[in-house]
Automatic annotation (TrEMBL):
Top-level division of the source organism's lineage: Bacteria
Pfam families from the UniProt entry: 2-thiour_desulf
PANTHER family: HYPOTHETICAL CYTOSOLIC PROTEIN, INNER MEMBRANE PROTEIN
Lineage, broadest ranks: Bacteria, Pseudomonadati, Pseudomonadota, Gammaproteobacteria, Pseudomonadales
Organism: Pseudomonas soli
Name of the featured protein: Uncharacterized conserved protein YbbK, DUF523 family
Length: 165
């Protein structure tokens, strides 16, 4: 398979060493992701920055932790000081969806625990470190499109899914 034919993967920019987290830091740069980058198959995105938020930015959480509820207008994304940043999160999720459609992406590796990117757990909105089963806003939208979303803790599963495309 030529380089241009390799299935592309959407990856959280903070997992590629980019300092785009709310605290102005990156979230590591796993070897597998570096290899995929070298193969030209990585499409990087930070949905929050793409949605218009600055770096650094105040931490934000979804009360109840369900990104799908934000998509449906039934929950908001709130910063620690109570500002509603739902619109930026929704804009970032829509940009992720555009990228996925443009590149025919079926697999994503997104940062665990994030109110945008989390795929199994998110914080519960209390800003006290409590996690609940849930997914971020971008993850929820991509899953509605049929994309398989893994985290940096599931890179073997992500590789398997990619090899089956
Ligand atoms: S977890 Fe997602 S939204 Fe947060 S910094 Fe990383 S890429 Fe951006």
């Amino acid at each position: 398979m030529s380089r241009s034919e390799l299935p592309k993967v959407l990856v959280s920019a903070c997992l590629l060493g980019q300092p785009v987290r709310y605290d102005g830091r990156a979230s590591g740069h796993p070897d597998v992701l570096q290899r995929w980058q070298a193969e030209g198959r990585v499409v990087p995105l930070c949905p929050e920055v793409a949605g218009g938020l600055p770096t650094p930015r105040p931490p934000a959480e979804i009360p109840g932790g369900q990104g799908g509820a934000v998509l449906d207008g039934q929950a908001q994304v709130l910063t620690v000081t109570g500002d509603d940043v739902s619109d930026a999160f929704l804009a970032g999720a829509r940009l992720a969806l555009e990228l996925v459609r443009r590149h025919g992406i079926r697999v994503a590796v997104l940062k665990s625990g994030s109110p945008s990117c989390g795929n199994l757990q998110t914080y519960d909105g209390s800003f006290s470190g409590v996690k609940v089963a849930g997914e971020g806003v971008t993850t929820a939208l991509l899953r509605r499109e049929g994309v398989q979303v893994f985290s940096e803790l599931e890179l073997e599963e992500a590789q398997r899914a990619l090899s089956q495309i």
